[in-house]
Amino acid sequence: MEVRSVAKATRLLEELAKEPGTFGVSELARVVEMDKSSVSRMLRTLEQAGFVAQDATTLRYSLGLSL
Questions:
Q1: Labelling 11: which of 25, 33, 58, 63 has CA 20 to 30 A away?
Q2: Which of 42, 43, 3, 5 is closest to 22 using CA atoms?
Q3: Contact indicator for 9, 45 with CB cutoff of 8 Å
Q4: Do strands 61-63 and 52-54 pair parallel, antiparallel, or not at all (unpaired)?
């Protein structure tokens, strides 16, 4: 049995890991085919855990130090 929210968060992390660089919320939402608000909430949660980091200037996301 799959926990959907965990599967979605995993999908975000996989996309961030595919290529070096940073990604915006809209870009990630489009790639993973989820709405922007859901992606934004998941990224904030992943950021709190250290799995993703947000650039304070560009507001774009990359993998965090915990990974």
A1: 58
A2: 43
A3: yes
A4: antiparallel
> pLDDT tens digits for 22-59?
999 999 999 999 999 999 999 999 999 999 999 999 99
Amino acid at 22: T
Say how far apart CA 45 and CA 29 lie, in whole Å: 16
Give dist(CA 38, CA 24) in Å, integer.
13
Structure tokens at 32: 């993973």
State the Cα–Cα distance between residues 6 and 10, nearest whole angstrom: 6
- pTM (two decimals): 0.91
